[in-house]
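Q: How would the structure tokens look for this protein?
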Amino acid sequence: MSEAGWKTFLAAEGVDDWVVLHGGATAAFRVGSLGEAAELAQTIAQVPGLDGSGALLTIAADRVTVQLTRGVFRIEPEHVELAHAVSAVARSRGVVADRGAVQEVQVAISAKPDDIDIAFWRAVLGYDPLAEDNAFDPLGHGSTVWMQELSPAKPLRHAMHVDVSVAREHADARVAAALAAGGSLVDGADGPGGWILADRAGNKVCIAAWPDGAMRPDR
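A: Here is the predicted structure in token form.
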């Protein structure tokens, strides 16, 4: 596992349908009905190499979402070809991808190193491990959970915030919408890669275009 996989994916040709988030490369294809979604998903499932690869397909009345891996660091060179094949299936049926529909929500739980307790969160949520510091919903419905080390210099013993990952070209609009809805900007130093916002009560959320925007010339 390394950054080489997702960097190779982002640099590849013909992957414009796909958004690379913390959970991996994801594409959402718009459809007109649940039946159409089921038919498209069935056809995509027949793409050689997809079955048994760990990919996740979810269907709804207006879309089919395909996630090639459950973690960004699990992207390998062969996922580029899988992405090409899945997109080709969608095009053959007249279905287009909607990058704006792709997002990932993650709950980040911060604690001092000695107090990190990911086993508790896996148990209470019924989640599975993907790496030693995280947990994910095996059904693919719920937010992922990530344990983040809290700096020993901070007086807090624990803290929680939400990470929202979106496509690079939609991050600015998401931040603007949050501010228009009454939020405040806590830290924009890492923009356009990410911003820290807060609601009126001070609850924090990070809106991130990483790693989808990591290969942009300005980054």
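The helical segments are 4-11, 34-45, 78-92, 118-125, 171-180.

The first helix runs from residue 4 to 11.

Upvote if useful.
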